[in-house]
Amino acid sequence: MSDNHGHDDDHGHEPDHDHDQDHELRVSKIRNGTVIDHVRGGQALNVLAILGIDGSQDEEVSVGINVPSDRLARKDIVKVEGRELSQEEVDVLSLIAPDATINIVREYDVTSKHRVERPEEVEGVLTCPNATCITTENEPVTSRFDVLEDGVRCSYCETIVRDEIADLIDSR
Amino acid sequence: MRHDHLITSKHLTREDIEAVLDRAAEIDADPDAVAGKHEGTILGLLFFEPSTRTKMSFETAMKRLGGDVVDMGSVESSSVKKGETLADTVRVIEGYADAIVVRHPSQGSAKMASEFVDVPLINAGDGAGHHPTQTLLDLYTIRENAGLDDLSIGIMGDLKYGRTVHSLAYALSNFDAHQHFVSPESLQLPREVVYDLHQEGASVREHESLEEVLASLDVLYVTRIQRERFPDENEYQRIAGEYQIDLETLEAASDDLTVMHPLPRVDEIAPEIDDTDHAAYFEQAHNGVPVRMALLDRLLEGGVSR
After folding, report:
1. How confident is the model at residue B297 (pLDDT cuts 50, 70, 90)?
2. Where are the beta strands (DSSP E) in chain A?
3. Which of A96, B75, B269, B304 has the fewest Cβ atoms nearer than 10 Å?
4. Between chain A and chain B, how many beta carbons pairs sit less than 8 Å apart?
5. pLDDT value at B231 more than 90
6. DSSP H or E segment with residue B11
7. Angstrom distances, CA of residue B82 to CA of A137, B90, B280
8. How close B104 gets to chain A, by Cα (Å)?
């Protein structure tokens, strides 16, 4: 099993020594939980929003922002101690971090590692930005978005959002 | 859940459309043949926005088929005023009516409402979204006047908020139609509609000036530039004037040009055009009855639509 420093090893080679040391310093190892790696640079705070992490609870979280990456040039890393993500959370993550890898860590070892897959639709996690969409009114309806190759589309009013999906995430 | 609602023209096939138009033509030719066919049937009319033609033509259509209507009346006099949701309203009316017609100011409202009922539900306009039954009568009128194949059609006016335009554009993508959209830049067709039309492989071009395409058109479909959309009255006056047509405008058009408008018009079409062979907008409005009779007949018999 590999360790969980978030090494950028997807191209089959080790990162250079300096990067490795940087990671050690910036993002500490976790014992049990999830490492979300290869998040596009600058999206880490949105990942935290999706996971409902705002610092008000006692979750132990490590975040690296804009660390060097072979694959993405710059990437973010989020390590959450004591928590494994639900499929629903992973589905939403895939919208803002389509290249992300989810590493499940147990006793400091990565026990499983997989890329996120974009679902066909997401339900109840995004708010439609169209103020005249029926889902923004006081109706007993759950928001639903079809996932496009390059964005999402409201299943009700059909508004397409491409660039600012993170802004639509329901605050929990 | 039933699947014989009519929410959008987007998923209608050419066969779906032609079946309704053919049936409408039969009814138009011999209305007595279906008189009383749906005796005892009740159609629920839920109009959360003002309507004249759509509401009255549905009412007429149902009565000519032998049925009757129950009408929510104005929003002001209904339980909506007390804060009742659309979802609750349709669930209540489902118990009174065999089919429901909904007009509502919010986009996606008809689709949402259809998820709460088991009787056929027809979208009679959902905000700036869709208006599929208007499209069916538009296509019927176009077919009568110009045919639906190898058609060159100009669609002019407020394309951004014009639900009749969105529905018509989707439906026309089933046919060999060249669609020219003429509008000020601020009122262009929504990008998601353009995206869909391109996905469908439709022939679509956008213009700011009618002069660019008028001579090549078989049909000119005019819609109202909505004054209320403009924060600046001067800007409205400047733009609106460029999208009005009169006899002088039509000198550059084909003698066979058919001029249509979903109505109501304000000043987009000069009254002097009314008495020419170009004018088809009143005929278009009248076609709402046989087309909606055909549609109701199909839906009430469980015909497949979407």
Report:
1. very high
2. 33-40, 61-69, 73-81, 101-106, 109-115, 121-123, 144-148, 151-154, 160-161
3. B304
4. 54
5. no
6. none
7. 15, 15, 42
8. 9
Q: Is B126 in contact with B163 (CB distance < 8 Å)? A: yes
From the list B112, B128, B191, the residue facing A134 with the nearest CB is: B112
One-letter amino acid of A133: C
Active-site annotation holds for B160: no
Distance (Å, rounded) from C-alpha B9 to C-alpha B20?
12
- In angstroms, the Cα distances linking B204 to A141, B30, B153 are 35, 37, 10
Name the residue among A140, A153, A156 with its Cβ closest to that of B85.
A140
| Structure-token match 């950028």, residue found | A8
Q: Is the per-residue pLDDT at B132 higher than 90?
A: yes
* Residues paired with B219 in a beta bridge: B153, B258
Query: B-chain residues within 8 Å CB-CB of A158?
Result: 107-108, 129, 192
Type of residue found at B104 = H
Instruction: Tell me what ipTM this predicted complex has.
Output: 0.92
Per the structure block, which two tokens stand in for B183? Answer: 């509008």
Predicted pLDDT of residue B88: 96
In this predicted structure, the answer to whether residue A12 has a pLDDT above a threshold of 60 is no
Q: Which residues of A touch B (CB under 8 A)?
A: 130, 132-135, 137-141, 153-160
Q: Is the peptide bond before B264 cis (omega within 30 degrees of 0)?
A: yes
